[in-house]
Each structure stands twice: as C-alpha cells, then as structure tokens.
C-alpha cells in the first residue's frame, strides 16, 4: 500500500511539471532583454586611463616585491595602489616661499599659484603704470626744454613756440608764459615721479598677493559658515545657565 501511494505521488509531480513547462516557457519568452546602458565616452576614457595607471603601478610594485624580501598580501598591494593613485590626484598646494620667488617676475607668482584670472589685473596695472610713466616723462621733458629756451638769451632756441598758436604775441605775454611753462614742467615732473611710485606699488602688491594666496591655501576652510546657539553651564557652583554662541568655519 505504501509503494502504491509513493508511485501515485511521483506520477502527480511529473504531471504537474509537464503541465507547468509551457507556461514557464511562455513567461520567459515574454521577458524583454535588459537594455544595456552605454556609459559616456569621457567616462570610458577616464576609466581606461585609471586602469592603465593602476596597472603600471601594480607592475612596479610587483617588481619591487620580487627584488625585496618583504612580501605583501593582495589586500596590501591594492591599498598601496589606491594610496599611490590618490596621492597623484590631490589638489595642488603652493609653497609660500616658492610663490614669493616666482613673484619676483611680474605675474610669476600668480602663475605658480594657478590663479590665472589675476594675470590681466597684474599686467594691466603694469601696462597702465608704464604708459603713465612714458607720457608724463615725455611731457616733462618737452616743457622743461621749452622753459629753458624761453629763459635763455639765445634767439635760436624757440621750442616753446610749439605750445603756442601761430602769430602769438610772445613779447607782451612773456612773463605769463614763463610762469605757465614752469608750472607745467613741475606738474609733469610730479606726475612722472608718482608714476614711478605707482609702478613700484603694483610690483609690491603682486608679490604680496602671491605670498598671501599661497599662505592661505594651507588653511582648511569649511563650507559650513554658520552660527550655532546652544545652552551652557556658566558656573557649576551657582548652577548659572547661559547661551553659547559658536561659529563654524
């Protein structure tokens, strides 16, 4: 009786499997294949570059391990690869001393600090000072020569006439003309000297900017610049309570 019951159960299981096979095949056939998402070409190139770089690092470390008595495990070798790769992709941190030395060349400190957007400001300041120095120096030279010509007794030296309109009566206005030429000579000399100081100031500012920029790059400044307010215990003996203000930066 037990053998017949077992045979009956086996027959039922086989029948159920045979009946369910077409349904399962139809269900599988109706499933659509998953669409493969193609990554961006830039990501592919970056991944290939990272893989090639890590392969070269692995080969170098493997060669060193073969020649050295110290043997690393696979986990240690992978950690060394990641550490060596991370050390190459860290942000550039300028050295203040090098930035100052490079800044002795106009704009060199800004280039060393990778602050290229400051170059138009630096070179614009230098070009403005050079233009002002050239212009004021030339005007001072012209008015100086005109003043010397009108003050001497040589009738052939008449460079001051270049500043006057044609047929100007110099004899009746000689005293006033001497005063004007002297004042303008002194004015343009002062402007020339100021241009020299301005040029030196721009040069000094460019050096200071390069040094300060490199020095401040070592500070870890967080993006969370917020004010936190929390209760605090001011005095443990009297149990005095108060408010604590703290800035996160």
Describe this structure in words.
It is a single chain. The chain is mainly alpha-helical and 249 residues long. It is 64% helix and 8% strand. It has 7 helices and 2 strands, in the order αααααααββ. Strands 1-2 form a two-stranded antiparallel sheet. Strand 1 and strand 2 form a beta hairpin. Helix 4 packs antiparallel against helix 7. The radius of gyration is 43 Å and the shape is elongated. The N and C termini lie far apart (86 Å). About 7% of the residues have low confidence.
List the helices and strands and how they pair.
Elements: H1 2-30, H2 41-67, H3 74-88, H4 96-103, H5 108-112, H6 119-151, H7 174-216, E1 226-235, E2 240-248
Helix pairs in contact: 2-3, 4-7, 6-7
Average pLDDT across residues? 74
Q: How is the main sheet built? A: 2 strands, antiparallel
Structural class, judged by helices and strands? mainly alpha
User: DSSP helix count?
Assistant: 7
Question: In percent terms, what proportion of residues is strand?
Answer: 5-15%
- SSE ordering: HHHHHHHEE
Radius of gyration: 43 Å
Q: Please provide the count of β strands.
A: 2
What distance separates the N and C termini?
A: 86 Å
The shape, in one word, is elongated
Strand order of the largest sheet: 1-2
Q: What helical percentage do the residues reach?
A: 55-70%
Poorly predicted segments: 23-39
């Amino acid at each position: 009786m037990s053998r017949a019951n077992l045979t009956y159960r086996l027959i039922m299981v086989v029948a159920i499997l045979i009946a369910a096979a077409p349904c399962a095949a139809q269900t599988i056939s109706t499933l659509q294949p998953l669409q493969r998402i193609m990554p961006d070409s830039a990501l592919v190139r970056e991944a290939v570059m990272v893989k090639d770089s890590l392969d070269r690092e692995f080969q170098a470390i493997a060669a060193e391990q073969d020649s050295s008595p110290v043997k690393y495990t696979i986990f240690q070798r992978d950690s060394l690869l990641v550490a060596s790769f991370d050390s190459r992709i860290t942000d550039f941190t300028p050295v203040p001393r090098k930035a100052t030395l490079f800044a002795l060349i106009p704009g060199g400190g800004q280039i060393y600090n990778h602050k290229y957007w400051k170059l138009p400001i630096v070179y614009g300041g230098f070009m403005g000072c050079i233009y002002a120095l050239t212009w004021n120096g030339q005007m001072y030279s012209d008015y100086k020569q005109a003043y010397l010509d009108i003050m001497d007794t040589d009738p052939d030296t008449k460079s001051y006439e270049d500043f006057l309109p044609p047929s100007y009566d110099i004899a009746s206005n000689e005293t006033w003309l001497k005063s004007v030429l002297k004042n303008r000579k002194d004015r343009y000399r002062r402007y020339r000297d100021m241009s020299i100081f301005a040029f030196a100031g721009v040069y000094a500012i460019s050096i200071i900017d390069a040094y300060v920029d490199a020095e401040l790059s070592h500070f870890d400044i967080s993006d969370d610049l917020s004010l936190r307010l929390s209760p605090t215990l001011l005095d443990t003996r009297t149990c005095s309570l108060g408010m604590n203000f703290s800035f996160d930066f």
